[in-house]
Structures are given as structure tokens and as C-alpha cells.
Specification:
Elements: E1 3-5, E2 11-13, H1 16-22, E3 30-41, E4 44-51, E5 61-62, E6 64-67, H2 74-86, E7 92-99, E8 110-119, E9 134-137, H3 148-162, H4 179-190, H5 196-206, E10 209-215, E11 225-229
Parallel strand pairs: 3-8
Antiparallel strand pairs: 1-2, 3-4, 3-6, 4-5, 4-9, 7-8, 10-11
Length: 252
């Protein structure tokens, strides 16, 4: 609260120093960022995971995350984590939800903000190799460190909801693709088969694509027609322009 009531019922403004001193434990809560980095490869939706370095979660993988530094905002932290942990930058990133269970972190009270990112695996090489950092099939993941399985599931559901009406799956694909490849991406995300005719009809109604009047060149039999996302639907690779940050990190 910003005010206190005196004996004569008049409101007196408090100073920030008094507020902090009288609620010291409230100002000792950490904030972190966790990134769910999705990729697509071999007809499978994947997520980037790293082996946890906390004894309490020995043998378990976790999402890529870190504590937010006292001198940085959430968006700067999210892009810093992506850059430091993967070597990647200028990729699609969206804030999803805050997770604040009291006991979600064994070191103390940590509130985390979850983001998800979409990456074309074939054209983004990871530049960091530590703690078994690598891609894992989303379908194969049963348990993660912290509450990261819940965070993963929440971000996956957000992604599934978004792809129905918004052209964001194209961040997982190369610039040129066939309708067959596009359908496989949708099926991988939704984890369900789609009727070919109905899918193509719905995509045509969206009017998202440009027919490039080209055919695949690496298919000896029945090469598919190539398409691209129309320029007006191409979102910037990042949702916000991050402030540059660097330095050591503490794995979350």
C-alpha cells in the first residue's frame, strides 16, 4: 500500500524506503524466465532441453531459463537466454504465462515468466554445446525438472490455439515449402492426422500463401508445388526488440 492512516484519520504518504523496510521479505522474491523453444524435424515437433545441473533434479532435463538480473527487464532476459544458451537470435518469441507456485523452486521463492519460440531447425545451427543441450520429441517427454513439464504443456496448448487462425507455423518451415510439408507441421503440432482435402481447403480460405509456380527439385517422383507465405503475413522474427545483455548465468 502507498499510504498509512494517522490517528486523526488523515492519509500520510509513505516513502519507498519505508515500504521496503516494512515488507522486506516481499522484496526478496526472485523472478526468472523460462523459454520453450519449439522446432520441427522429420515430421516431429521437438523442444530444446538441457540437462539440469541441480542436485535435486539429477538426471532430469529442463527448459532453457535463467534468473532475471536486477538491471534487466523480462524481454531482455528472454533474448539473453536464447543467445547464451543456443547462439541464436532474431527468432520468433512470445510471452505466454506466469507461474508462481510457492514451492516451484528448491532454492527459494522464484516466480517465472514463460515464453515460447519457433525455430526452423534445418536453417538454425546451435552454437552452444553443454550439459547435453539438444532437441527432444515433445511426445516423448514425461517428466522435467522444476514445473517445466507444466510450462511445456501450457506453451504447447497456446501454440495449438494460435495456429488455427494465425500464420505462425511458418517460422518452423523453410521459406519455400509444399502443402504436404505444411500439413505435416500442423499434424505434428496438433498430434493428430488431418484430412488432406479439408486441410487444403481451409488453408486456401486463409489466403496466406503465394504459389511460386515452382516444383521441388529433390524429389524424383511426383515433386510437389512450392509455396511461400505472403509478405503481408510475415511477422518480424522477434516480437520485441531486445536490449543487449551479456554475462554469466545461473541455470534455472
Amino acid at each position: 500500500m502507498n499510504t498509512v492512516i494517522s490517528k486523526n484519520n488523515k492519509l500520510i504518504t509513505k516513502t519507498a524506503a519505508f515500504e521496503k523496510e516494512s515488507h522486506l521479505s516481499y522484496f526478496n522474491i526472485a523472478v526468472s524466465v523460462d523459454c520453450v523453444i519449439f522446432g520441427y524435424d522429420n515430421d516431429d515437433l521437438k523442444v530444446l532441453l538441457i540437462k539440469s545441473d541441480l542436485e535435486e533434479y539429477a538426471g532430469l532435463y529442463s527448459l532453457l531459463g535463467d534468473l532475471v538480473r536486477p538491471d534487466e527487464d523480462l524481454e531482455s532476459a528472454s533474448y539473453r537466454i536464447l543467445k547464451q544458451r543456443t547462439g541464436l537470435e532474431n527468432v520468433y518469441l512470445e510471452q505466454v504465462q506466469t507461474f508462481g507456485e510457492v514451492d516451484r523452486h528448491p532454492s527459494g521463492r522464484v516466480i517465472t515468466v514463460a515464453y515460447y519460440s519457433l525455430i526452423d531447425i534445418q536453417h538454425h545451427d546451435l552454437q552452444v554445446n553443454e550439459n547435453e543441450l539438444g532437441w527432444h520429441s515433445v511426445k516423448s517427454i514425461e517428466r522435467l525438472a522444476f514445473d517445466h513439464k507444466q510450462i511445456l504443456d501450457t506453451c504447447l496448448q497456446r501454440l495449438r490455439n494460435r495456429i488455427v487462425n494465425e500464420p505462425i507455423v511458418f517460422h518452423l518451415l523453410p521459406e519455400k515449402f509444399t502443402l504436404r510439408e505444411l500439413q505435416k507441421v500442423y499434424e505434428a503440432i496438433l498430434d493428430a492426422p488431418l484430412d488432406r482435402r479439408n486441410f487444403r481447403k481451409k488453408i486456401a480460405m486463409k489466403d496466406w500463401l503465394t504459389d511460386l509456380r515452382e516444383l521441388e527439385t529433390d524429389k524424383p517422383h511426383r515433386p510437389g508445388r512450392l509455396y511461400a507465405l505472403k509478405q503481408e503475413y510475415k511477422s518480424p522474427p522477434v516480437i520485441h526488440s531486445p536490449q543487449r545483455a551479456s554475462g554469466n548465468q545461473s541455470r534455472r
